[in-house]
Structure formats: C-alpha cells, structure tokens
Specification:
This protein has two domains: 132 residues, 3-Layer(aba) Sandwich (Rossmann fold), CATH 3.40.50; 107 residues, Dihydrodipicolinate Reductase, domain 2. It contains six helices and eleven strands. It is elongated, with a radius of gyration of 19 Å. The strands form two sheets. The protein has a six-stranded parallel beta sheet, with helices on both faces. It has a five-stranded mixed beta sheet with strand order 7-8-6-9-10. The protein is of the alpha/beta class. Helix content is 31%, strand content 26%. It is an enzyme of class 1 (oxidoreductase). It comes from Bifidobacterium cuniculi. Its EC number is 1.17.1.8.
Length: 250
C-alpha cells in the first residue's frame, strides 16, 4: 500500500484527492494537513508520497519543506516559474536519497495533457497560434499554468521548425491581446459556471484548427493525480519531473 498524505486537504481540489485516495485499492490515507498545520508532521516513516494542492504563494516553501522531510511529492498547485523550479532541483540535489522525486503538473486532466501534446505536434504547420483558457472566477492565477505550459510548447515547436513571429499588426499597447508567452498570445476568461477549459487556435490562409479540452468537474483530475502518485512512488522518476505527459505513452 502507498501511504499518501495530503497538504491542502480541505481545499476544493484537496478534498477530492482525499476521497480519491480513500477509494484507491493500492493506497492508504496517512495525514491530511491544511493552512497553518506543521508540515514536519509528515515523515518518511508515515508517508510515501505527499499530494500538495494549496496556493501559489505558499507552494514553493511547502515543497522545499517536504523535500527536507525525505518524502516524494506530487504538486498540483500552479504558478511555477523557472526560478522556482530551479530551487526545487537544488533541494533535491542536496538530499541523500538519489531516488527522491518531486512531480509538478500544470494539469492533471488527461484531456488537457493530450490537447497540449497535440498542440506541440500541430504548431510547426501553422502561421498563427493563440491560446484561450477559461476558468471559474475563484481561480487565483491568470493565465493558468496549463495555458502557459501549452504556449511554451507551441513556442518551442515553432522555434525548432524555424518559424518567425506570429503575424500581428494590431496597433495597441498589448493590453487587450493577452499575455505573450514565448511569442504566443494567451488569453484568460473568468466566468461563473465554468470549471477548467482550454482552446488552442491555429490558423493558416484559408484554414483553422481548434484543439479544445474541457473539464466539467474536479473529479476529472483524479485519475491523473493517482497515476502521478503511483509513478512517483515507483522510484523510476528521480529528481524533478514537470508534466503528466512524462507518465503517458505519447
């Protein structure tokens, strides 16, 4: 049995993870912690894998603390930058356990991971590309980590293909064109009634390709969370891994 502790257990996502772990035949729930709780309660003796779903302002400190506690960590909180990821890598390199693992997912929905993968495949073949992400208004970050990750993948694929900048002659200060991520405009919609949605738009003269992923309920993320827990616990992915695509046969 994989002993799983959850940080952010009373949050919107954390509460779903609690129920998913309870229902998993190969896992047992160890500790459930939330804001203000002492993370050093979590040790390698009582926990194999920690699932961390909190907020961007505290997630880095949480992960660094948990790495210091000698446990593997699965992170669903967004807001990660290259500088913050570098701090996690440094912390892992300083540990005595060469198999210790941290996994960070821009998105746990299988549909979103596949949409991201398909977008990378399509990117070299289109002159124009834009990303639109749509979420509920209680989401604290914008654009979403998923959309940023998708745009980065598109930008990388375009660069490898030798494509120039996406054409755009709009005469504005950029405020109404969305955040630019690696040359790709990313737009964020916050609307009551939505959950988590992403559209990737590609265009050539006379044609358009739209890739869309929709998660209508937070339960859609749980298969990805449980997959990540199992993969991290296997010991086959030491160090830092970013993106659920590493755990899928793509």
């Amino acid at each position: 049995m994989i002993k799983v502790s959850i940080v952010g257990a009373r949050g919107r996502m954390g509460s779903h993870v609690v129920e998913a772990v309870k229902a998993a035949e190969d896992m047992e729930l160890s500790l459930t912690l939330d804001a203000g709780d002492d993370l050093t309660q979590i040790t390698a003796e009582n926990t194999d894998v920690v699932v961390e779903f909190t907020v961007p302002s505290v997630t880095l400190d949480n992960v660094l603390t948990l790495v210091g506690q000698g446990v593997d960590v699965v992170v669903g909180t967004t807001g990660w930058t290259e500088g913050r990821l570098a701090q996690v890598r440094e912390a892992l390199e300083a540990t005595a356990n060469e198999l210790q693992s941290v996994f960070i997912a821009p998105n746990f929905a299988i549909s979103a991971v596949l949409a991201d993968h398909f977008a990378r495949l399509a990117a070299p073949y289109f002159e124009s590309a834009e990303v639109v992400e749509l979420h509920h208004p209680d989401k604290v970050d914008a654009p979403s980590g998923t959309a940023i990750h998708t745009a980065q993948g598109i930008g990388e694929a375009r660069a490898k293909a030798g494509l120039g900048p996406v054409p755009d002659n709009t005469q504005t200060d950029g405020g109404s064109r969305g955040q630019v991520v690696d040359g790709v405009h990313v737009h964020a919609v916050r609307l009551r009634g939505l959950n988590a949605h992403e559209e990737v738009l590609f265009g050539n003269a006379g044609e358009q390709l739209t890739i869309r992923a929709d998660s209508f309920d937070r339960g859609s993320f749980m298969p990805g969370v449980l997959l990540a827990v199992r993969k991290v616990n296997s010991g086959d992915f030491p160090g830092l891994t970013v993106g659920l695509d590493h755990f899928l046969d793509l």
